[in-house]
Design brief:
binds magnesium ion; binds adenosine monophosphate; two-stranded antiparallel ribbon; alpha+beta; globular; single chain
Length: 487
Amino acid sequence: MSANTFPFKNSFAGLPPAFYTHLMPTPLPAPYLVAVSPSAARLIGTDQSALALQDSVEVLVGNRVAEQSQPLAAVYSGHQFGVWAGQLGDGRAILLGEIDTAEGPVELQLKGAGMTPYSRMGDGRAVLRSSIREFLCSEAMHGLGIPTTRALSVVGSDHGVVRESIETAAVVVRMAPTFIRFGSFEHWYYNRKPDELKQLADYVIDRFYPELRAEENPYAALLEEVTRRTARMIAHWQAVGFMHGVMNTDNMSILGQTLDYGPFGFMEGFDANHICNHSDDRGRYSYANQPQIGHWNCYALAQALLPLIGEVELTQEALDIYQPEFAKQIDQLLHAKLGLTTVQDGDRELLDRLFAILQASHADFTIFFRRLSGLRAGGPEGDEPLRDLFIDRPAFDQWAESYRARLRAEDSSDSARKLAMDQVNPKYVLRNYMAQVAIEKAQNKDFSEVERLLALLERPFDEQPENEQYAGFPPDWSNQLSVSCSS
Ligand code: AMP
Ligand code: MG
């Protein structure tokens, strides 16, 4: 099926006109397909070869509008870096419509398809570099089992786009049940439009949280459920060392999915205070700050929902589940990362000590946890690959002795534990240097590395002997890479 005949429905367009502006994407000259995610394509009932047809490429870049699509850009507002930013909106994203799938309706959205009424000072474009990063990371997060928007395709054009230097344009097609954000609610709250606020909340509840209708106060229940999902999502981020980089309220999905991949990063040498976004000079969105920022963002959503909930106390109760939910989830994830199947006194201390020695030696986060499954409960023979990751080896030895004692306290079997740990500690994550290599090749029209990384990251927990090089340390030059909000 060519993308031109996608069976689009247009639910969002059924909301009143105040919520969006209908418009056409702005064409890009001579578009070429850079990449397609086969699994994302399968989800919407199509495949790579259908999407590679020139007819489809024209739709995926926005040069042609599919027959049943009613394209639009949505309005929203938000807090950026903790400050109220007023109206933002889809400044370069255009919603095409939604397609029914086995997992429910999925919206397709072009990112980088030209100016909209919400573009402010921007040009409505996205560059190939950031489009490849968003594409690969969306699919990598999906491969890791972390709630996320998906990416269907990247289409490039030689059309020049001015950033710090002149780059070329690209369009990513993103997929999610909805792209409604915390900032979509804040928009109506701060503009004192209670009717629109209610319409939006009812739309979200009816479509995505229908079970909440039965609750006494569905709006409080919505806040509670979004708070819960947000806490869980961020616990997953922490557990794989993912840093989002721009956790503004306009980048927080109302479904608790990871949304808007810009200056993200995966932790390499462990530093809890690492800041992956070069533009975040005060470190608001550092690794260590992510959990509390997630809570702060839920407060911003709560403020917007308060007129609907009607009671401060109920609102506070919904927000109060954040910390226990986060603590429960991260505790489960960390127990699994250590291969522990029981909860025992002293586990918290064992974990705290682990993060302290990782921090002191800046040990590589992904490599450490992957190698940890090779540790033997019986004694230190075989510790070398792990021990080598630490500058302070005696500190590691001490910790390893405590860990071994803890494993023996639950009669842990080395082989069963290794199997289980290798299912939760990825061997492969999207390191910045990997994306960079793929980007530089793609800038020279060689898209093979994008394809290769996509296939690699779809199965991040599997041993892939032919891809062993991606499981190692990043090359020295990767220290020089800096990623910022410029995209
Ligand atoms: P972000 O930080 O990428 O989530 O973007 C924040 C806001 O800026 C959103 O409203 C975006 O649509 C808008 N924006 C970012 N880049 C551009 C661009 N190149 N052209 C127009 N709007 C943009
Ligand atoms: Mg955004």
